[in-house]
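quick one
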Amino acid sequence: MEYISTRGLSPAVSAQEAILAGPAPDGGLYLPETIPALDAGELKALGSARYEDAANLILRKYLSEDAFPAPELRKAVSDAYARFDGPEPVFIRAYDDGLSVLELWHGPTCAFKDMALQLFPRLLPLCRKAVPGREDEESWIVTATSGDTGKAALEGFRDQPGIRVFVFYPAGGVSAVQELQMRTQEGNNVCVTAVKGNFDDAQTGVKKLFRDESLAKTLGKENVRLSSANSINWGRLLPQIVYYAYASAKISQNGEPVDFVVPTGNFGNILAGCIARRMGCPVGKLVCASNENRVLTDFFETGVYDRRREFRKTASPSMDILISSNLERLLFLESGGDAERVRDWMERLNAEGYYRIPVEMRKRLSETFGCGSASDRDAFEAIRKAFSEKGMLIDPHTAVGLFVLEKRRSGAGSGRKTVLVSTASPFKFAPDVLFALTGEKEDGFRALDRLSEISALQIPEPLDGLRTRPVRFSGVCEKEGMADVLLAAAARAPMES
Ligand SMILES: *Cc1c(COP(=O)(O)O)cnc(C)c1O
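structure w/ pyridoxal-5'-phosphate:
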């Protein structure tokens, strides 16, 4: 299968090339030339498949047997999900009659990013092997994080051969638990550094590293290439299609479509649902739930994407985003592959800060997408309601989804079976969840303990275990000093294997 760029100016490439590249050279994002369809037999098989079998079935539709031989692919999938707790990597819990909650956070970092970031690093070596000239090189994954992604990348790439990972986070800009999660990271190929500055400074710094020609030259001598684990990489989107295929097949009765409500930031999670629907899975409406940074909800309501607004810091920080990169893929798909138009919209967004899609296109989108937004106050109310009425503890991101969902149900709901996509463990955001439930203000492990006490739930081991794990990284650098962190690593002995 060939992959093409949403901006139409780069040549088509193989899956392995698309995954190694990240964004396309023309600045667009890779998508398969056609979305493969599942046949009736495969859809039926999904209804009773184990998660790993579902993953192998879906991945095979996109990855060739030549580059990704079945035993290797099977091993990558099985290794990726071995570190999740429970009989299956995802949990489907009944909330009430028509509503199920799909929990995607039972992996090693307690957020849904693990679904992709455990598998993606295990696909990279297969990609390198399949592309001439790339097999012997070392990839250095460099990431700036506001909290969740950095930790998930560290866990996913740790001890992977031929890979090193460097994470930069804003000093004082992440929660105490998130910081501890990163500073205690294990593995012989990881490096964590705090940057004196905010998230934008760290992000801008990383972008500069990728453009730094002298750095590229120095690293090139060591056969090292910089690479990113950003959510616009096709290799991160692909594993996410699996849980929509799996959950819709399990929940649907007689092929009836199932609606999904998705707490959304960069539009990666929900886009995977859209692709599953295009493959023929019984996915009905996809509801995009925004926090107070409601740029996507406004887009679906008005047809105008406008990032010219104030950035809000909310209790659902992983959704605090004003430029939802993966929306570009939806625009490409919904415009029938009109790369010229996509290019025009993206240029406008860049130059003027907004663009507008035609009315017919917005109307068509509203047949398959819903939307809604929630303030922190709304989300806290949903946290209280879920706990007092259903005994279910949810995190602030998932709560944004629940609030939007309840509002839709009280209006003219579809009456269809619905799935709320749950994206993080409530313990990962314990201070806010505790405050929402009781009004108590506790920080760090005190908040985790109190939450465990009132919910009678155990603190997940990856978070509880942080209390005794030694701190391995306490480095801090200036904004201008990020390249030196990489150069210092290059000067040391090559990575021990
Ligand atoms: C990343 C993240 C999201 C947003 O997902 P997107 O793919 O960026 O839309 C929602 N909730 C949590 C907990 C996350 O970590």
